[in-house]
Every structure is written in structure tokens, then in C-alpha cells.
Amino acid sequence: MALAQQGNTVSVHYIGTLDNGRIFHSTPDDEPLVFTIGQSQVFPALERAVTGLAVGETVNIVIPADEAYGPRLKENIIRVERTYFPAEKEITIGQKLSISFTGGGERVVQIVGISETEVTLDGNHPLAGLDLTFALRLDGIE
After folding, report:
1. For residue 132, what pLDDT is reported?
2. What pTM, to 2 d.p., does this model score?
3. Is the pLDDT score of 103 beyond 90?
4. How far apart are CA 79 and CA 28, in angstroms?
């Protein structure tokens, strides 16, 4: 029986949950996650968990925040003047925006606060600072 190893392209199905049991993502039945072990396409901890599994095997793993999306950083929360947004543009808390930086960088941010004079934007990944639990099944090895 073949076991997943470095360089193999594998397909997995998973359910990802948070400490409170909330599902943050799962793979649809007809769309497994496909990646090549060792190509840094997924979290290294996920690659390690799949390595050595045979097709059909399942495993549960917890990926600490530091090995997933990292900690929530205060420096990723910025306040900008409300005047940066067109007056006719409706903005709401929870809305996501793509902003461009000098030099060509781009980032998706979420509006987390609005006042008469300022808009607070959070550039942290929504899962930053959270430990992630994955229940996964190896479905294929190429």
C-alpha cells in the first residue's frame, strides 16, 4: 500500500474548525484540496500530517495560530480619514475592501469601525490568532 511522501501530489477532504467548534471551512464532496507535499502550498503542519498516510486514512490535527495565520497584529489595524471614501459610497462594518499601497502591494482589509471622521480597517487575516483544527482524510496519491 502506497504512503504519501515528499513530492507526491495528494488530494484530501477536510473539515476545519475553531476551538469553539465553529466550522471555518470544509472541502466540498466533489472538490478535494490537491497539493504537492514539499511545495509549500499548504501549512507545513498539514503536509506533515498527511505524510505517511495511506489512501482512506483519517487524522485530526491542531495547527497552533503561530503555524497557521500567525498572531493578530495591532500594526495591521489602521485608521484613515473618512474623507478617503467618496461621500456617496456607502460603507459598513464588516465590509471587505482591497487597498493598494505605494510600490504595488495590495491587501484585503475589513472595515471594523466607522465614525464621523475616521474609518478603522483591519488587515489581519480573519483567522489570525486562532488555533485551527482539521479533520482530514487522504483520498488520493499521485
Report:
1. 98
2. 0.84
3. no
4. 38
**Cross-strand pairs, 107:** 99
Helix (H) or strand (E) holding 44: helix 44-50
pLDDT in tens, 39-74: 999 999 999 999 999 999 999 999 999 999 999 999
Containing H/E element for 50? helix 44-50
Domains annotated on the chain, with CATH: 9-69+127-141 (3.10.50.40), 74-122 (2.40.10.330)
Strand locations in 18-105, DSSP E?
23-26, 33-36, 58-63, 77-81, 96-100
Q: How far apart are CA 79 and CA 120, in angstroms?
A: 4
